[in-house]
Amino acid sequence: DTGVSQNPRHKITKRGQNVTFRCDPISEHNRLYWYRQTLGQGPEFLTYFQNEAQLEKSRLLSDRFSAERPKGSFSTLEIQRTEQGDSAMYLCASSSLSVAGGPDTQYFGPGTRLTVL
Amino acid sequence: DAKTTQPPSMDCAEGRAANLPCNHSTISGNEYVYWYRQIHSQGPQYIIHGLKNNETNEMASLIITEDRKSSTLILPHATLRDTAVYYCIVTKDYKLSFGAGTTVTVRA
Fold first, then answer.
1. Residue in chain A nearest B44 by alpha carbon
2. pLDDT digits (tens, 9 = 90+) for A52-67
3. Predicted confidence (pLDDT) at residue A72 exceeds the cutoff of 90
4. A108 and B43: CB-CB below 8 Å?
């Protein structure tokens, strides 16, 4: 399968602990995105990388959140000092520059479901 | 990005065409219409997108009105596996803004 992969698929942690999620994009894609989805809502944009550069961060991404893409391939999303409000599905998507113009088409991974107790 | 309006839910009979409407009356000239769907507990799946012409692929057809203020996603022969939340998104850049979508239930 050459789609976007995310690990782990599920994570249960206690409040105050740190967690890290990994995303492996489609191999030729140079753009990578993180979204968060809470129960009953649509996904919300968190941040965006082009190669290794983080080009935008949503105001939803508090100081406890950090994302990296060190070599322009896989990406990690770390949440420090987790809170119960961080419980959500964390989705990763990737895309390559559209040759036809307009926005890229983003392809999503299966997500990591985080439960903070 | 322009805001979209979709009905919250709709039912469809298996084997029949499903027509999903989306209103985007404030769309600007350089904004595209994207459709994604999300089957329970999975990541969103890309379906189709267009700017002003009608588009068709192996999954669906997208009909955009001439004034571009609304569009319809057509699933030609709905199956039970098409049961999902369908999102209509209007965007001109990389930031996808998902609304509540339409919950489509395909019934046997």
1. A108
2. 999 999 998 889 999 9
3. no
4. yes
